[in-house]
Amino acid sequence: MVRITLVQGDITAEKADVIVNAANSSLLGGGGVDGAVHRRGGPEILAACRALRASRYGKGLATGQAVATTAGRLQAGHVVHTVGPVWSREEDRSALLASCYRESLRVADELGARTVAFPAISTGVYGWPIDDGARIAVETVRASGTAVEEVRFVLFDERAYAAFEARLA
Ligand code: AR6
Predict the structure, then answer these.
(1) Nearest atom in ligand 1 to 84's CA
(2) Secondary structure of the chain in the HEC alphabet?
(3) Does residue 36 line the site of ligand 1, with CB under 6 A?
(4) What atom of ligand 1 comes closest to residue 133's alpha carbon?
(5) Total of domains in the chain
(6) Residue 12, ligand 1, Cβ within 6 A
(7) Could you confirm whether 10 is annotated as catalytic?
(8) What is the extent of the structural domain holding 134?
(9) Mind listing the pLDDT tens digit for each residue in 76-89?
(10) What is the CATH number of the domain that holds 44?
(11) CB distance 153 to ligand 1 below 6 Å
(12) What value does the mean pLDDT take over residues 18-31?
């Protein structure tokens, strides 16, 4: 059974076998977690992302999917990039957000990872309400059947941390 832990802080400071990036389809960087991952991880990560765009992911990475690259200078074996859905009031995109966690863990399992650090995917620039984002994250990880020993949610602020804490209780 996977152990879920919580940390408040910057995910790029974590040590883990896999650090998950809340990317976008282009895989070529952005703000939030994505910006921090590329800034602190160095140019090797972007080079790996460009290589993916030039090969298997010519059209980019679809929402809900995940793909691994080097972690560059981060204290991790790999970065797994996943693309969360943009939150919508009209349309229920929960299945796509759940898919991000499930697919990231599937890739982590393929890599033999024992520890995986996740941000709260889609709850920043993509506007997903934090309480619902926390619910989907925790439920999906618990139901995943992953061989990963520890899933660590790294929450940027107190509010996000509290939302995850309430879900775990
Ligand atoms: N460490 C941990 N959590 C963070 C960090 C950090 N360094 N920075 C922000 N957060 P976001 P999204 C929190 O916007 O919503 C990018 O431009 C943040 O407070 O990083 O999936 C991509 O290129 C929020 O709770 O990702 C995409 O275009 C959560 O991490 C788009 O943003 C996710 O916020 C993806 O948007």
Answers:
(1) 21
(2) CCEEEEEECCHHHCCEEEEEEEECCCCCCCCHHHHHHHHHHCHHHHHHHHHHHHCCCCCCCCCCCEEEEECCCCCEEEEEEEECCCCCCCCCCHHHHHHHHHHHHHHHHHCCCCEEEECCCCCCCCCCCHHHHHHHHHHHHHHCCCCCCEEEEEECCHHHHHHHHHHHC
(3) yes
(4) 25
(5) 1
(6) yes
(7) no
(8) 3-168
(9) 999 999 999 999 99
(10) 3.40.220.10
(11) no
(12) 98
